Amino acid sequence: FQNVNNSQIFDPLNNKEDIKCFAAVATSLNIYYPDAARSKNLYNVVMKGMRNTRPPQEQTLNIPEDKISEVGIIDVNLKDINGNAHKLTDLKGKVVLLDFNIFQSATGVPHNYMLRELYNKYAGKGLEIYQVSLDADEHFWKTSASNLPWICVRDANGTYSTFAAIYSVQQLPAYFLIDRKNELSARGENVKNLEEEIKKML
């Protein structure tokens, strides 16, 4: 990294604002040059920086109380960037991480980096990610999701999503673990160590 008078101009390993900038660049590189050494190197730098700093504060999602209900797994059937529909219940037999997220937010990029690490480690052992984007900007979502290896769909209703309401999503990102029998196993706020919980379920 560039230095001026022995001081770094950017510090992507310890400065949260710089990490956000580097993460945005890393995402773009990963979309267009996923196999390039520079893309992988920048990805590793961003991941190390996020580990060195406190995770970003979650974004509050305002959903009317009368739309929130407590249920078990309910099917989600939405379309991916190519217009293909994906049903959540079709993933029975796998351990599923159901994820609600907004890509165009401060938490979107670092959250997806965390998911990518988990997916790379455990997809071969039976983990699948079903990610629901609540982005208002469809083009931004399609561009950001074009290189994701897991199932990524979008609810055009955004933060007024019926699915988000049914799953009682009130903060983003939010995730749920579903076991191989298609039963809801855990909510994100009740999971202390996501990776360890996934390993137990596989």
From TrEMBL:
Alphabetical list of InterPro entries matching this protein: AhpC/TSA (IPR000866), Thioredoxin-like_sf (IPR036249), Thioredoxin_ResA/DsbE_sf (IPR050553)
Subcellular location: Cell envelope
The Alkyl hydroperoxide reductase subunit C/ Thiol specific antioxidant domain, residue ranges: 74-184
Pfam families tied to this protein: AhpC-TSA
Key word Disulfide bond present: yes
Entry's Gene Ontology cellular component terms: cell envelope
GO biological process: cytochrome complex assembly
Keywords from the named record: Cytochrome c-type biogenesis, Disulfide bond, Redox-active center
CDD domains listed in its UniProt record: TlpA_like_family
Name of the protein: Thiol-disulfide oxidoreductase ResA
Organism: termite gut metagenome
